[in-house]
Amino acid sequence: MKKPIFLEPLFQERIWGGNRLSKIYGYQTPSNQTGECWAISAHSNGQNVVRSGELKGKLLEDLWREYPDLFGHFESDRFPLLIKILDANEDLSVQVHPNDDYASEYEYGELGKTECWYIIDCDENADMIFGHHAQSKEEFIRMVDNGHWNDLLQRVKIKPGDFFYVPSGTIHALCKGTLVLETQQSSDTTYRVYDYDRRDDKGNLRELHLEKAIEVTTVPHVTSKVEPAFIKMSGGSIITFVEEDYFTVYKWDVQTEMELMQDAHFLLASVIEGEGTLCTEDGEYALQKGDHFILPHDLDSFKIKGTLQLISSHPNYKGSQHRKMESTARRQMANI
């Protein structure tokens, strides 16, 4: 099949959520505390359905299982990635995620959670928590036990267009006034370290997961350097933000018309700004801000016309020598 697969977004209410998903993207959200748009997901805690076409109404998990040709027979027992848009109307809890090995053993076979963030928008002078200052596990535990959060937590300034790579084991928290597109492993495992003593709608303090958090946190903190690669093209540009074990993430900035190639197993794409048209050999498809779609394996080339920005990604095989060889070959071809 050489047709794009458009998906219906799914929404999750959160104590820290707001109304920007509705105001900016026109989504029909459940309330003014909607924190997450699950845009492309086959996770059991929230699955998207196909919006239109011959596969309309099917769950993404069903496509993964029943139509492996769409995904180039990618070697995974589950759909590997999860794409979200997060509206942090208030500070999120300070948290950390496990890696694959820990999650598989202690979270009933769940994947670990390495993720990354593209800052769509944020308040002026906004910041976020990204890392910590402890130099040993003992110091980390002591500062947590004594509630020395200002001394422990590392804050960084952010602005629209910033990109952050957040490997498992990284202490982090989005803060008030931030709108983010998140690309992550397909996991819903989060260990809360600190939650500002907030209470849920029943008046109870929200649960923390300190024992597991201490076990999985990287100490001392390691900042993963992001070195985006910019390519100017006829009609626009491409930024490659990160290419790592689990995923590669791009920004497509279309000014007039860009012709692109599909050289991954499949591509995921989200329109974060503007509007235009996706053109394939099968036909033309209108694109507008807030659309999310999958470009299947057999869709080799396509054009995007208009003035719009998209964040796109594809999964990678962790530690796969074959994947590294393919990547090397593509770079060599590009230099010919």
From TrEMBL:
Catalyzed reaction equations: D-mannose 6-phosphate = D-fructose 6-phosphate
Name of the protein described by the UniProt record: Mannose-6-phosphate isomerase
Top-level EC class as recorded in UniProt: isomerase
Note describing how the cofactor binds: Binds 1 zinc ion per subunit.
Annotated family: Belongs to the mannose-6-phosphate isomerase type 1 family.
Origin: domain of life: Bacteria
Organism in which the protein naturally occurs: Priestia megaterium (strain ATCC 12872 / QMB1551) (Bacillus megaterium)
Keyword annotations: Isomerase, Metal-binding, Zinc
GO molecular function, one term: zinc ion binding
Binding site for Zn(2+): H97, E115, H172
Annotated catalytic residues: R192
Location of the region described as Disordered in the Swiss-Prot/TrEMBL record: 316-336
Cofactor(s) needed by this chain: Zn(2+)
Catalytic activity, EC: 5.3.1.8
Ranges where the Phosphomannose isomerase type I catalytic domain occurs: 6-107
Biological process per Gene Ontology, one example term: carbohydrate metabolic process
Domain Mannose-6-phosphate isomerase cupin stretches: 238-315
